[in-house]
Design a protein that fits this description.
Blueprint: E1 2-4, E2 11-19, H1 23-35, E3 40-46, H2 50-57, E4 66-68, H3 71-76, E5 82-85, H4 92-101, E6 106-109, H5 116-127, E7 133-136, H6 143-153, E8 158-167, H7 170-174, H8 189-211, H9 217-241, E9 246-251, E10 257-263, E11 268-275, E12 281-289, E13 292-298, E14 309-317, E15 323-330, H10 337-351, H11 359-380
Parallel strand pairs: 2-3, 2-5, 3-4, 5-6, 6-7, 8-11
Antiparallel strand pairs: 1-2, 8-12, 9-10, 10-11, 12-13, 13-14, 14-15
Length: 381
Amino acid sequence: MTVNKANGTAKPILRVGLIGCGEISQVAHIPNLNHMSDKFVTTYLCDVSQQALLHCAAKVAPGSPKTTTDADTLCSSEDVDVVIIATADAFHVSHAILALKYDKYCLLEKPAALNYRDIDILSKAESSSKGKVFVGYMRRYSLAFLEAVKEVKEIKNIRYARVRDIIGPNSDFVDQSGTFPRRFDDISKDDIDELNERKEDMFEQALTKEFDVEATPSSKFMLRLLGGLGSHDLSAMRELLGMPKSCLATSAAPPGIWTALFQYDGFPVTYESGFNNIPAFDCCIEVFSDDKTIRINYDSPYIKGLPTTLTIREKVEGSFGRSGFQERVIRPTYEDAYTLEFRTFYECVLSGGTPKTTVADARDDIELYAMILKADRTNST
């Protein structure tokens, strides 16, 4: 840890080791860490691609981070205070365990895990470490979302809610992000084989051994989508509304658009997600009551500075005893969700605190994946 003495105030600067130099690191993490130079400095990069390491090292400010292809080397380094893990899903748990082994806080990109076995192994490793895992559900750190949580708590009777995340091709947003990311293929056959073996084991454990769902190409693909795009929405849904009692039905049609119907205590929630070819980002969570509707509107996280907004529509008293209507659009800040997430991570590390997006919290997402896939199995029979 270094100290920033700018403006006469001593502020700790956390030295970051970043594992995974792919798209999200190039588009979001490295630029944000560079911008937040009063809080972070990237000192170490790790990836299985030497070309990716060279490319990303040149993007780091003030430059000259150490590089390695070995995650243990990075995590054990005295030049690293905290670890950010942005690797393939199959390596999330093993790399987080390495960070915890050396008593370091880590920001672990979602999904933390896709099965109970792996999430419980991670939880056990955390229990014996001085470090903690901060799961990267960045949408839950948006100020508009936090305002929505307060608003929903004041609602007496929720009647219905819907969760939607239907987006165009990611490349349409990434290519216009101004970050000019690149993909590299200098990955050894051994590394590719290890990734594929880990993925198959991860899917087999979740689907066959834990969810009692046949491990088909379709169910594997659906689980991967739920852990990817879906985990953002489902995690936010949980914080806003709690856990549903059950999943009543699904209509899963990857790679198109899929839906699920959740039953809560007294009201239903529809979940719809998927992809089309329209270069737009249609993402919201909307909660309906008798007198008020609360809607969180998300935009693409790949374009920095696009705000998350909160729209409230409610009944008001009009003239002559008649009911009126008003709509408020609230934009608490232009700061994007990734920046707000990093701010919270920084404060959490300095205080030694526990984040709200814990390993235990992430375990509930696996319960939702199981609900959806079991309901889809039932509908298919």
